[in-house]
Structures are given as structure tokens and as C-alpha cells.
Amino acid sequence: MKGRSAVCRALGYIGLAGVLVVTACSSKQAQPAPALEKSAAPLQSSADEWLARAEAAAKKMTRYSFELRMDQHLGPDGDKARTNVLVDMTGRVEREPFRLDQTIDSDIDGEKSKLRTILTPEAYYMYLPEYEEWSKLSKQVSAENRATLSEFQADPERAIERIRGLAPNLEARRNGAEIVVGYEGTGPAAKPFVAGMLRSTLGLTESEGEIAAKLEVEKLSVVYRIDAERDWPLAYRIETKLAIELEPGQKSPIVQTVSGSYGKPNATSPIAVPDEALRAPDPDELGEQLELNE
């Protein structure tokens, strides 16, 4: 099924790290953002104004912790060939220079795996507890994976910018010490937003415009939580129901929920690569040695 291979490709990106393709294709749950409460206090400021403040605050987050969960069902409900994917990620991000340390727990159709990855400008390190050893991939692979990480994971201000694109159909309500911004609908802005999400959650390589052209959005629900005092982004929950043409003339239904949260802005411990990972074989060096020996 091409849908399953698309899911497996996605596990090489979205911060789900390339090794999951090896483990799955051969934690801790993120605190979900609540639904937009109509009974909450109305706000004088608009939803876009609150998101703009959160976007500005996110730009100041030089380091933070995160949790991200993806619950995805690809294929018709009740179909034996349906692919069910559940991925939980917890980790830390440093942004100048970009470094990421995360643990990934995945369950693809009952096949469970666990993986730790560390991404740095110099290399991409992976630890599989099953084999109790570190692997090291090249600087080029590190750059490729950095480019395909989910924006909600690695570029929170860009993720907020995308949500702002759902205006004017955004609502904002106060819920205690939080501002809860929500969107519910399938208007013109929904397609490009969902297309952007699918590039990471399905590992699609086409442009967002090309993806949107093959897409039908049946449901899009977005909830984004903001610290009302400090404007920090707190958590999000994005529910989608859609159909996309993964094969010519054949649309595959997908039900997907992506949720996550941020913590310890500018207060996380430094990311350090373990000595065992640093000593792992470098594929570029091995290739050069093989060429010299030929």
C-alpha cells in the first residue's frame, strides 16, 4: 500500500528521525490543548493580535523543551489494510546553532519501537536501545533532516504564522491564565494549512500548492494555547479529516491528530552529545577510507 510507504517516509522526517524507517518499515503524551470554550471570557484583543504576540515571544525562545504526539489513521475505517500510526516525541531544542535531542516512541500497526536522536550542525546521531549502540550519519543527512522537521517542533513562530493564515475565522477566549485561540472549518485557508502539515506528517516532497490540489479537507480543528501574561506559546491540538490522492485517480482518507506542548523557555539544560555517539563510525570517513583502499 503506497499509503504505508508514505507514512514510513514521514518517519524519516518530522523529527521522527530517519532510523525509524529502518526500525518500523523493515512517553510521554503531550498535554492536549482543550477545545475552545464558548463560556470563557470574551477578549477585546483579536485572535490575530494574540497570535502575533505569541509569535514575537516564540522568536525569543532560544531553547525549550517540547512534547509532540501524532495519531494518524490512513485508509478507510474498517479496512484491514488501514495503517495506524502513533508517535510520541519528547525532547529539547537549541536554536543558535540548531541542536535537537529527542526520544521517539512509535507504534505502527502494532509494531513498536523506541529511538533517541541528536541532531547537530556537524552530524546526526541515533541510538537504538534494541541494539544498545549509537550510529552516526553525515553532516549532509543532518542538514536534510533539519530542513524537514515539523515547524511545530523546531520553528514555533513559523507554526504560529501558519495558524494566523486561518484568519478571519479565528476566535480567542480567556481561560484562566491562558488565551485559547481556535479555528473550526473548511474554508479557503484550510487547504494550504493542511497541505503544509502533510508535508511533514506524510513526508511528501511536492510543493504545498501541488499537495493542496490533490486534497479534500472534510474537517479542520485548531486549538492553540498562549500564556496570557508572558505571551509564551504553551500547547496546540490540530485535528484533521481529509482525503488525498497518493496514487493517480485514487484518494486515500486520512484522520489525523497532531498535538503538543512547549516548556522551560530559555531554561533547558544544554544539549550534549554522549562520548559513545561521538566515537560512532562516521560514514563519510568510512567512504573515504574505502576509496583509498581501492
From TrEMBL:
The keyword Signal applies. Residues 283-294 have a biased composition (Acidic residues). It comes from the Bacteria. Residues 256-294 are annotated as: Disordered. Residues 1-30 form the signal peptide. InterPro entries: DUF6612. Keywords: Signal. PROSITE patterns: PROKAR_LIPOPROTEIN. Pfam families: DUF6612. This is DUF6612 family protein. It comes from Cohnella boryungensis. The lineage of its organism: Bacteria, Bacillati, Bacillota, Bacilli, Bacillales.
